[in-house]
Amino acid sequence: MMTADPQTIEAAQPVSAAARLMLDHDTGAVIVTEDGRVSGIITDRDIAIRVVAADKGPDTPVADAYSGDLTSVGPDTSIAQLVQLMRSAAIRRVPVVQDERAVGIVSIGDLAIERDSDSALADISAAEGNQ
C-alpha cells in the first residue's frame, strides 16, 4: 500500500529543489534527511505558508520550512495501527522508516484506495495528476 522509494531531500537544499521534486514526481510531500537519516517532511503547504507567504525566496533552505516533528512508522506496522496513528495525530502522510532511512510513505489517499476503493477520496487519489 505504501509508495516505495519515496523522494527525499537533504535539509540544507533549497526549497526550490523540493518543489521541483514534487513537480517531477507528482507528489505533495518530500521526506527530509540530514546526513541520509530521516528528520522530517516538507509539504507543498509548508512551502506555501513558511516560504511564499513569509516573503522568503526559493533559495530558502528546506531546514527553515519543513515539519521536523516527524511521526513515522516501520514497515511492519499494521494498517489498523497506521489508521489510528493518522487519526490521533491528525496527519495526512506518514513516512515508513527502517534503520533511520525512508523506505516508503503512506498517504491518506493510499489508505482510501486500500480500504474504501469506492470513495471519492480513493477516486481522486487514484487519478492521474494535473500538472
Overview in brief:
The chain has helices at 15-25, 44-52, 79-89, 108-115, 120-126; strands spanning 3-4, 8-10, 29-34, 37-43, 93-98, 101-107.
Overall shape: it is: globular
Our measurement of the CA-to-CA distance between the termini, rounded to an integer number of angstroms, reads 24 Å
CATH architecture: Roll
Number of domains: 1
Could you tell me the number of beta strands? 6
Radius of gyration: 15 Å
Q: Describe the strand arrangement of the main beta sheet, using strand numbers.
A: 1-6-5
The low-confidence runs, each spanning 5 or more residues with pLDDT under 50, are none
Estimate percent helicity. 25-40%
Largest sheet: 3 strands, antiparallel
The level 1 CATH classification is Alpha Beta
For this structure, what is the CATH homologous superfamily? CBS-domain
Number of helices: 5
Average pLDDT, to the nearest integer? 87
- Structural class, by secondary structure, is alpha+beta
CATH T-level topology = CBS-domain
**DSSP strand (E) fraction?**
15-25%
Output the helix-strand order.
Answer: EEHEEHHEEHH
Keywords: CBS domain
Protein name: CBS domain-containing protein
Domain CBS: 2-60, 66-121
Organism: Nonomuraea dietziae
